[in-house]
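We both want to read discrete structure tokens more fluently, so let's practise on a single case. Would you write everything just below, so we can both look at the same thing?
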Amino acid sequence: MALRNGPGEFGLVTRVIHWAMALLVIAMLALGTRIADLEPGLANLWLYGLHKTLGFLALSLILLRVGWHLYTPPPRPLGAPGPALWAARAAHAAFYLLLIAIPLTGWAGSSATGIDVMIADRWTLPPVAEPSVEGEAFWFGLHGVLTKLLLGLVVVHMLTAIKREMAGDGTLTRMLRGRA
């Protein structure tokens, strides 16, 4: 089992990062939805802290994935070139952009509250936005819109992977086992 990607297979590191991100994104979507329904207050402070910590972990993982992708490019895509390949590449680019932008907009929104952005109740991140009510509304509003886009993309990604696997091209198997 190779750590690096090969011409026709995903390496172990790529697969571990992919599935860790998948679980983290699902957890973050569930937690973020829960937080959005709550009234801000001290009783819920730990949920906000958990969300920020997981968001920082997600940002770290996607940056690791970008670095790993540059170090060991992904295998050749399955299937013939054409609109489906273009759509897959566009979807993956959108994933990367959203998975970087969503934590950054959350960080900016948290910074705009004027409250320290704490990670794991231990480390304070530097503010990336000036404290202001308008900035807080803007950044958290953008954070929410981008998150909804990500949710839609996740659903399409999952359905496409299942459809392609059922068609017998081995897409899902390749991400689970490394090769089709």
About this structure: The domain at 12-177 is CATH 1.20.950.20 (Fumarate Reductase Cytochrome B subunit).
